[in-house]
Fold this sequence. Notes:
Alpha-Beta Plaits, 34% helix, 2 domains, globular, single chain, six-stranded mixed β-sheet, four-stranded antiparallel β-sheet, Rossmann fold
Amino acid sequence: MSVLAARGLRKSYGALEVVAGVDLDVVPGECFGLLGPNGAGKTTTLKLCLGLVEPDAGEIELLGEPVPRRAREARVRVGVVPQFDNLDPDFTASENLSVYARYFGIGPDEMRQRAPRLLEFAGLAGRADARISTLSGGMKRRLTLARALVNDPQLVVMDEPTTGLDPQARHLIWERLRRLTAEGKTLLLTTHFMEEAERLCHRLAIMDHGRIIAQGTPRALIAEHIEPQVVEVHGQGYEAWMERARALAPRVERAGDTVFCYAGNVEPVLRDLAGQDELSYLHRPASLEDVFLKLTGRDLRD
Length: 302
């Protein structure tokens, strides 16, 4: 049985259709990623699935409950990490957990037992009495994750969980999220970080203009949509060299001052670059980011 199943979801604001016929299936124990550029409809889709926004059309079942009709009953077994931290600055770290627990009918005695485990999980052991203003951005993000776990949820929904964090904090949160799936919890996340999606997600869907345009495992999407090898080239004279590259690789693209050559065999490209002293290059395997940019374009989204 699916933890979350959605069929034909649609949501418009005025003349703008933000979600345009989305189907989703999230199965128990997996980390499912929802990717897309700004304005693709990711956050609205999450709000629809949680019953926070009423759909114009479609059906949603969350943990066996119909949404939005019984969304409140379903959300008792869901933890949510919002896009922006909304911790209460007037409370300590442990008080933030205790106050939030009251929404789920969890009393002070039970929270006194749960709080140390949650703070340890978040890497905040010893910070129970710390004021929010004294915590770093990474600590606040980890506390927000711990707060989402106070009700021991079956499903944890995260909207861009590592935005704004430095690499060390991001890697620590990734380790904690992998621990959650190892414990059998189901994760649903949106992210702009392709490396994050590739590392964490068992399956993912790429959204654009309110529609899902690709879905599958990270490896399967790379194999299906992109050539296996990439050479990134930049340096003086890259524009002139790009015209030569079109005869050496089946697909050549430019982004800013970098030329991207995609091919199954990039040896002709590498041989040609060996004699180009003014050009620098990087040869690497194709990634999920290459798939994302191919499907959604390289134009800036605001």
